[in-house]
Amino acid sequence: GCGQLGALLAKDLCDEGYNITVIDVDPEAMRRLDESYSGYTVVADGTDVDVLEANGIGEADVLIATTDLDNKNLMVSEVASRVYGVARVYLRLNDEKKKTLVDGYNIETLCPLRLCEEEFYHMSGLDRLHEETR
Length: 134
Description:
By secondary structure, the chain is α/β, with parallel strands linked by helices. It is 34% helix and 16% strand.
């Protein structure tokens, strides 16, 4: 997905010399990419296995699923990991409870709410009083 996170990661990784392909169903989303982005863009549904295959999922070293839709991210991540054996798969999840669906696979989850919470406690120096209730 080429939302804010996807566009930022694509630009940064491209700047580091990685070959990047961004897939998003919305052509307007590609406008989020920095003008220095030199990777590929594909306007298509990234949950379509034919689209993934046509864009090199079989040779990919890394897949990052960053849409705002958990179920799409879960599906693409599982296909990448379980069907195509992509070595490193990263999955954005808004609903942390869905993480159990990919436990046991080589899929790392990024939960924005949890990351913000952790950063808040790190920055503030405040203690978590009820850690056991989480």
